[in-house]
Amino acid sequence: MRSPDERSTPRVLVVGAAIVDDLARPGRLLAARRTRPVETQGLWELPGGKVEPGEAPQQALHRELVEELGVELRLGDELPGPDDGCWPISARLTMRVWLAELSGGAPTPDDAHDAVRWLTAASLDDVPWVPADVPVVDVLRTLLLR
């Protein structure tokens, strides 16, 4: 629950893509290793980024994935979080996440990421995740086990 002070400060919306190998039968999840900022350097994340003013969240997700990994996506269902459908990141940031699969391009690291890796349910714990993505990854683990 947010305090009254936190409620008066507008939160910045971030979008993330849980890129799986197959929307109908997900078996693997794509993770990207951050190079910056220092606080998250070397940690793995679901790729995405901030929604720009006037931009729809899904548009932002498509834009961010082209910019970050050079890929196009087919979006699936949104993974609703516990905070009015969003996943809390901090007092200032909140995130919406969609399942997605690649529809064009091959994931290629950029200056914000130095590696990408496909993970199975069994290998999700082989990498250190950014703290904000841990609860989302826990939900994804059950999807990958089906």
TrEMBL record:
Its UniProt entry gives the catalysed reaction(s) as: 8-oxo-dGTP + H2O = 8-oxo-dGMP + diphosphate + H(+)
Key words of the record = DNA damage, DNA repair, DNA replication, Hydrolase, Magnesium, Metal-binding, Mutator protein
Q: Which cofactor does it need?
A: Mg(2+)
A single GO molecular-function term is:
hydrolase activity
Q: Which CDD domains match?
A: NUDIX_MutT_NudA_like (cd03425)
| Family, similarity comment | Belongs to the Nudix hydrolase family.
EC number of the protein:
3.6.1.55
Name-wise, this protein is: 8-oxo-dGTP diphosphatase
Q: Which residues are in the Nudix hydrolase domain? A: 10-142
Superkingdom of the source?
Answer: Bacteria
Which Pfam families does the record match to this protein? NUDIX (PF00293)
